[in-house]
Design goal:
It is a single chain. The chain is mostly helical and 201 residues long. Helices cover 79% and strands 0% of the residues. The protein is built from eight helices and no strands. Helix 1 packs antiparallel against helix 7 and helix 3 packs antiparallel against helix 6.
């Protein structure tokens, strides 16, 4: 039964991640605005995803446990560029690309670097969610933030808790997914709250 459950969880995670950022991207493109979204939050999220992917590859974990990350990273890069474009900051994109590219290679120069980065990755990823929450609280407006995208992120964290327990049982990875699940639910609830507030005004 466990291998069947693992296959279902992996498949649904990959399916969700194949389109996870599309609702957000569509909202931004339709509005022609990035209002309600934080560039800082997305940069932190992207950094967290890159570190996590590099960690999984470095330790030779099963591809099934992180296959969605290249897909999410590609969607994040496209979304980040659109947000920067609509915010008038598109010229900074090259700088960020170089920083992330250099960081990708520096992470595995020494084992202690990737281990430290993974431990810090949880804080960086948590910070990305907290930056988005702070932005929502300050503006009291969900703007173009997509509750569907954040809800799908919560789902994938929940599924990755299951797959981590069933495969690698890596405590650092497990803690990361539990914290991200809680924060993704919080951001989703906050977006829904401000969406309802905007509709009743």
């Amino acid at each position: 039964m466990a291998p069947g459950l693992l296959d279902v969880v992996n498949l649904t995670t990959w399916a969700v991640c194949a389109v996870i950022k599309l609702p957000q991207l569509v909202a931004v493109l339709q509005a022609g605005s990035a209002w309600g979204l934080s560039v800082g939050s997305l940069l932190l999220e992207l950094a967290g995803f890159l570190v996590f992917l590099r960690y999984q590859i470095y330790y030779g974990y099963p591809l099934e446990t992180y296959l969605e990350y290249p897909i999410i990273i590609a969607q994040d890069v496209i979304l980040l560029f659109c947000i920067m474009h609509f915010s008038g900051k598109a010229k900074r994109a090259l700088f960020y690309a170089v920083v992330f590219w250099v960081g990708w290679y520096v992470l595995t120069l020494q084992k202690w670097i990737i281990d430290l980065a993974m431990n810090l990755c949880t804080f960086v990823s948590a910070a990305s969610k907290l930056v988005q929450l702070q932005h929502l609280w300050q503006t009291k407006d969900s703007g173009q933030a997509s509750a569907l995208t954040w809800g799908m992120s919560a789902y994938t964290c929940a599924t990755r808790i299951i797959t981590t327990v069933m495969t690698t049982n890596d405590l650092a990875v497990l803690i990361r997914f539990i914290i991200m699940l809680i924060l993704n639910i919080w951001v989703t609830a906050t977006i829904l709250h401000y969406s309802k507030t905007k509709k009743t005004d």
